[in-house]
Design goal:
The protein is α/β, with parallel strands linked by helices. It is 53% helix and 9% strand. The protein folds into three domains: 7-192, 2-Layer Sandwich (Nucleotidyltransferase, domain 5), CATH 3.30.420; 202-294, HRDC domain (DNA polymerase, domain 1); 302-365, HRDC domain (DNA polymerase, domain 1, Orthogonal Bundle), CATH 1.10.150.80. Helix 1 (13-23) runs parallel beside helix 2 (68-75), helix 4 packs parallel to helix 7 and helix 9 (214-234) crosses helix 10 (244-253). The longest helix has 21 residues, at 214-234.
Length: 366
């Protein structure tokens, strides 16, 4: 059933503060954001939509500041904050407005616990529960432009308008499930983890890295971390520095001059011009480092990896079945292999190996 609601633009900081005080008495708030990040490392907040069950508020961050009372509201456990796939929303609100969250209900995660489908989109979930077809054509439009088009405004309103209904239906289905407490822990961990903090294991996710030997892989990890720190410092996307396959080739050929870097090929001249000295410095630093610090076992070279991964997969399947959730939600095959690799190579575990997953599985996997 299609829902209709009035909406109001909030373009004044005092009005936003007044509304936030009112919302402290609300049962829930449905929240969504629009942002742009094509030219920056950190997302640029363009719009915040809030629906309190009576009216949709479109808050313009280009014109107002975030009041302290709204930050207090985000942490207030009496008010449920409803998101759909809220990971990037938390990131942009934390970076732009220094907001942290408690008492979160993520409808995508709730559906994953109930159905086993991990990445169901908002429009698909609305269609499933409300038989309403949402127009998603404005997803990648320019949200920093002003004024927004009518199509953008309707899109923004729809993005929060159906969240309370989804929350009520999904929450009711979760109440009598044995895994409801794990769902609550997942939501808590989602909004408390720093999604942009560099994890030492990130370099392992690059598919082309399999071709590197131990010495080259050590350099690749070093370059991967250097690129991240550079992106943070300059606030640009990591791909604007060097893309993953380019870093792999740099680790493979280990250039020690601007000319050698240029000869690798398929690297933008701007990147060469701007970062060649950094690359040469990283290569030389790697070559002069003690062997223990500059080499890393490649997963392909660990003979026990496949066996340990297979054994752990059986354990994960059994535990997921006993809890009543999808094995991929508990630990995907890819994550199991990463975890097994970190165990066998004596490296830090993946970031996901914490919280309720670790509580459930640590004893048996150990």
């Amino acid at each position: 059933m299609t829902i209709k609601s009035s909406y109001e633009w909030v373009k004044d900081s005092a009005e936003f503060e007044s509304l936030s005080k009112q919302w402290l008495e609300a049962e829930y708030l449905a929240i969504d954001t629009e942002f742009e990040r094509t030219r920056s490392f950190y997302p640029v907040l363009a719009l915040v939509q809030i629906y309190d069950g009576k009216k949709v508020y479109l808050i313009d961050p280009q014109l107002i500041d975030c009041p302290d009372v709204f930050r207090q509201l985000c942490l207030d456990e009496r008010v449920v904050k409803i998101f759909h796939s809220g990971k990037e929303d938390f990131e942009v609100l934390r970076y732009s407005w220094q907001c942290d969250f408690r008492s979160l209900f993520d409808t995508q995660i709730a559906n994953a616990f109930l159905s086993g489908e991990l990445s169901t989109g908002y429009a698909a979930l609305v269609k499933q529960y409300s038989d309403v077809i949402l127009d998603k054509q404005e997803t990648r439009s320019n949200w920093l432009q002003r004024p927004l088009s009518e199509a953008q405004i309707h899109y923004a309103i729809d993005d929060v308008l159906y969240l309370p209904g989804l929350y009520q239906d999904l929450n009711q289905s979760l109440q009598d499930k044995s895994f409801n407490s794990y769902f609550s822990k997942e939501c808590y961990e989602l909004c408390t983890n720093d999604v942009r903090q560099y994890q030492d294991q990130e370099y392992r996710s690059v598919s082309e890295a399999w071709m590197l030997n131990e010495e080259q892989l050590g350099l690749f990890r070093q370059l991967h971390l250097w690129r991240y720190n550079t992106a943070v410092r300059e606030d640009i996307p990591v791909g604007h520095i060097f893309r993953d396959p380019q870093l792999v080739r740099i680790a493979l050929y280990q250039p020690e001059s601007k000319a050698e870097l240029s000869n690798i090929g398929n690297i933008h001249p701007r990147s060469i011009r701007r970062y060649w000295q950094n690359i040469v410095e990283q290569v030389k630093k790697h070559k002069h480092a003690p062997k223990k610090e500059s080499t890393i076992l490649n997963p392909r070279d660990i003979s026990e990896l496949n066996k340990v991964s297979a054994d752990w997969l059986k354990i994960v399947k059994g535990k997921a079945e006993s809890v009543g959730i999808s094995e991929n939600l508990l630990l995907s095959r890819r994550l199991i292999k990463k975890l097994a690799y970190s165990f066998l190579a004596n490296e830090p575990a993946p970031a996901a190996w914490q919280g309720w997953r670790k509580e459930l599985l640590a004893a048996e996997l150990n």
